[in-house]
Amino acid sequence: MQLNERDIRALCQQILSYSQADQTEVLFLGNQSALTRFAVNHIHQNVADEDAQVSIRCVVGKRVGVVNTNALDEATLRATVARASEIARRQPENPEWRSLPGPAPLSHAPAFSEATAAYTPEARAQAVQTIIKLAKDKGFEAAGAFETNVQHIAVANSLGVWAYEPRTEAECHAVVMADDNGSGYTQRMGTDASTFDVEAMAREAVETADRSRNPIELEIGEYETVLDTYAVAEMIQNLAFMGLNAQAQREGHGPFVGRLGQPVAAPAITLANDPLNPLTMAASFDFEGQPIQRTTLIDHGTAKAVISDSFNALLEDQPNTGNALPAPNTWGPLALNLALAAGDQSLAELIKGVERGIYVTRFHYTNPVHPVKAIFTGMTRDGTFLIEHGEVTRPVKSFRFVQGIFEALRDVRGIGREQRLAKDYVPVLAPALHVGAWSFTGVQREVQ
To answer: What backbone phi and psi angles, to 5 degrees, belong to 446?
Structure first.
């Protein structure tokens, strides 16, 4: 499937011409994905998929209808437009609805990599084999996946919006399992797959798995803690899902409710949504074709701003930061280009600053507990260690935790200088952090 801007634009304009609604929007999503998955030191799946779909949003007065289709023939498209319009007419009025957005100037983001677009199954297999070989040499087992995606994203509407951008995304991760309950993890992601140092990834996962064997059990409680980049990214992702946006702020259920303009973190902490940063998953515009504005959410420890989309911006007569998700969307705006500012310490220096505490490689199975109080829960995984006298000494069994994010960020005592882009659901560019206290509430035990 060959996709290009000219043909996509012609298709979107054709769809707009079919509509008799007051306003119409077409979101085009074309995706070419390829995946190599491995387990037990063997590649067991290699797949490729191509798809193109359109989402059509029709506005009739203050009523809105949305229909998606991946059948792009004329008859289906005409029927889909008619159905979206009919759904809109049957909806109850939304008294808060204002309008679809109009056109706005767009910047050029470093969102596309020719190397990723040309990445072959053989190249993915060779990268995976590098991880598997090092694991096998140690008698361990590796599992994970390497995926590349080429996306063509376009938005057109009846008010004159036209936005098109090709984007690439690559992600590789692995879990290495050792005997005696040892495990390690590695992940790399970005627009350019050729930048991944797969040998360094393999060493990272294998060495962590080796060091984490025969973990001891520690008492639960609060510990001074060093969170590696994976754990920090997961924490910031949870903060984003809690609602750092205008809708959650207005409805009273986001973590910045009552906190804008107030200190929420240590002065060294700055968190921004930074769409033009080449270290993030850069993007020029959101799913309404609006420019994504760099927005500083936490500025040197102070809650500074929330993100918005066109609906919330028009409703509140505020600037649109360009963070819309595809309609229909009850979540509200979501930041997809988050970056936590780096510090000036190495990971070894962060650890050296801890007399007795815990080092956490990553979290998993995390969930919000109280969005307004910014409390979340989860477990440590794939490398949890005891720190004694500034050195990582013994592996410890994984903990469950319940922790206030702002409480942790207010007690940050050191920030790593290396940032890493990591993703569970939302990619976050994050450094490691040394926090004064982390609340561990349970210990993972083997089932007898």
So the answer is: -70, 140
Eight-state DSSP code of residue 24: E
Examine the domain organization and report whether 148 and 176 are in the same domain.
Answer: yes
Give the span between the Cα atoms of 388 and 407, in whole angstroms. Answer: 23
Q: Tell me how far apart the alpha carbons of residues 363 and 440 are, in angstroms, rounded to a whole number.
A: 12
Q: If DSSP codes are grouped into helix, strand and coil, which group holds residue 125?
A: helix
Do residues 109 and 283 make contact, with C-beta atoms less than 8 angstroms apart? yes
Residues with Cβ within 8 Å of 137's Cβ and at least 6 positions away in sequence, in order, are none
Asked if residue 447 has pLDDT above 60, the reply is no
Mean confidence (pLDDT) of the chain: 97
Residues 6+ apart with CB under 8 A from 129: none
Is there a single domain that holds both residue 176 and residue 272? no
SS3 40: coil
Where helices occur in 331-379 by DSSP H, the ranges are: 347-352
Split into its structural domains, the chain has a count of: 2
CB atoms within 10 A of CB 159: 14
Whether residue 206 is contained in a domain is answered as no
Spatial separation of the C-alpha atoms in residues 93 and 250, rounded to whole Å? 20
| Vertex 359: Cα angle to 379 and 336 (nearest 5) | 60
C-alpha 20, offset from chain centre: 37
Q: Are 430 and 419 in contact (CB under 8 A)?
A: yes
Strand partners for 291: 285
Counting every residue, how long is the chain?
448
Closest CA to 64 of 84, 38, 36: 84
338 token code pair: 């988050």
Q: How many other CB atoms are found less than 10 A from the CB of residue 189?
A: 18
Express each pLDDT in 16-39 by its tens digit: 999 999 999 999 999 999 999 999
Token look-up 């040309």 returns 118
Give the Cβ contact number of residue 365 at 10 Å: 10
Tokens of 387: 């720190």
This prediction has a pTM of 0.96
* pLDDT at residue 444 in the model: 85
Residue-wise pLDDT for 360-401, tens only, equals 999 999 999 999 999 999 999 999 999 999 999 999 999 999
Domain assignment of residue 203, yes or no: no
In a domain, 148, yes or no: yes
